[in-house]
Design goal:
74% of the residues lie in helices and 3% in strands. By secondary structure, the protein is an all-alpha fold. This is PTS system fructose-specific IIC component/fructose-specific PTS system IIC-like component.
């Protein structure tokens, strides 16, 4: 089991290393474009044509994030035959499917990449006639693996998940009439859990819908929670350098910029490389920030998060304080939970 876990960490880090450029390049392009935008009730509006095009380029780069993660996890496990199945599985995870338009995001992509890799590795071991061997790696293995993983995802995970999403939407709507603290914890945890996945979208969608009815406090909580994971992890990579790789430290600088503009996905490289420590930490940090925003009466009139929406934020000092305390909470948790890399040999 110990050897398996070491191998799994190596595969995850391989996927993350190929994913980081898509996150940083795409995220920075989007961040710079949004920095020119106007914060309005309908969202962030980019009016300049050049920056609109730069935003399109950034979104295109970001769209490769999950496919690259899944593809190169599978490649690390099974070699070249695993690459296409992993890329395809990552694409499926990152795009809406079914009537409920379910998108499982990076967590779905990471799981599918692992499944695709081990499935491709298993198919490679099949005993086949000599006449078929030349086309195994270029046709049979990718075809069989892609179909099995894709169909399993669509029928076993994506469609049933639609019902779960509907249940979460109802649960969160019911909480809006109850305790502010419980609502803030729910919003913070859901926003940070999958950083753009279905759980995140339920919280964000609910908060955005409530703006139209005059309730902007939930969006205030969500706006704070959205930027804490990337800012918190970015600060951690700078302040706790001995706990992060050089690649993660570079990604951390971009993550701070992305977080300030309200792009939660900036934290995904950190979560993908160490999910068991990072995901609970950013959920706690986002919850702390959301609680402060909720109790302090911070509001957000735009369906977006981060510091870029400050022109339409009510009680901005509390909003900023919530972001700072939530981000520092993440740094503190990383200090206690993340291992010091300098104290561990590379082969450990």
């Amino acid at each position: 089991m110990k050897q398996f876990m070491k191998g799994m960490k190596r595969h995850l880090l391989s996927g993350v290393s190929y994913m980081i450029p898509a996150v940083t390049v795409g995220g920075i392009c989007i961040a710079f474009a949004l920095a020119t935008a106007d914060a309005r009730e309908e969202g962030m509006i980019i009016t300049n044509e050049l920056w609109q095009n730069i935003n399109i380029i950034g979104e295109a780069a970001m769209s490769f994030m999950v496919p690259l993660l899944a593809g190169y996890i599978a490649y690390s496990i099974a070699g070249r035959p695993g690459l296409l199945p992993g890329l395809t599985a990552g694409y499926l995870a990152n795009n809406p499917l079914g009537t409920a338009e379910i998108k499982t995001g990076f967590l779905g992509g990471m799981i599918l990449g692992i499944v695709a890799g081990y499935l491709a590795k298993w198919v490679k071991e099949w005993k086949v006639p000599k006449v078929i061997k030349p086309i195994m790696s270029i046709l049979i293995i990718p075809l069989v693996t892609t179909l099995l993983v894709g169909l399993a995802y669509i029928y076993i995970l994506a469609y049933p998940l639609g019902g779960a999403v509907s249940s979460m939407e109802s649960m969160l709507s019911n909480l809006t009439s109850g305790s502010t603290v419980i609502l803030a914890i729910a919003v913070g945890c859901m926003i940070a859990f999958d950083m753009g996945g279905p759980v995140n979208k339920v919280a964000f969608g609910t908060a955005s819908a409530l703006i139209a009815s005059g309730n902007m406090s939930v969006m205030g909580m969500a706006g704070v929670a959205i930027c804490i994971p990337p800012i918190g992890m970015g600060l951690s990579s700078i302040l706790l350098k001995n706990r992060f790789s050089c690649e993660e430290q570079e990604a951390g600088k971009a993550a701070i910029v992305m977080g300030s503009i309200g792009i939660t996905e900036g934290a995904i490289p950190f979560a993908a490389s160490d999910p068991l420590r990072v995901i609970p930490s950013i959920m706690i940090g986002s919850s702390v920030g959301a609680i402060i925003a909720g109790l302090g009466g911070a509001t957000d009139a735009a369906p977006h998060g981060g510091l870029i929406v400050l022109p339409v934020v009510g009680n901005a000092p509390i909003y900023i304080l919530a972001v700072i305390i939530g981000s520092l909470t993440v740094v503190l948790l990383m200090y206690f939970l993340k291992k010091d890399l300098t104290k561990h040999k590379p082969n450990e």
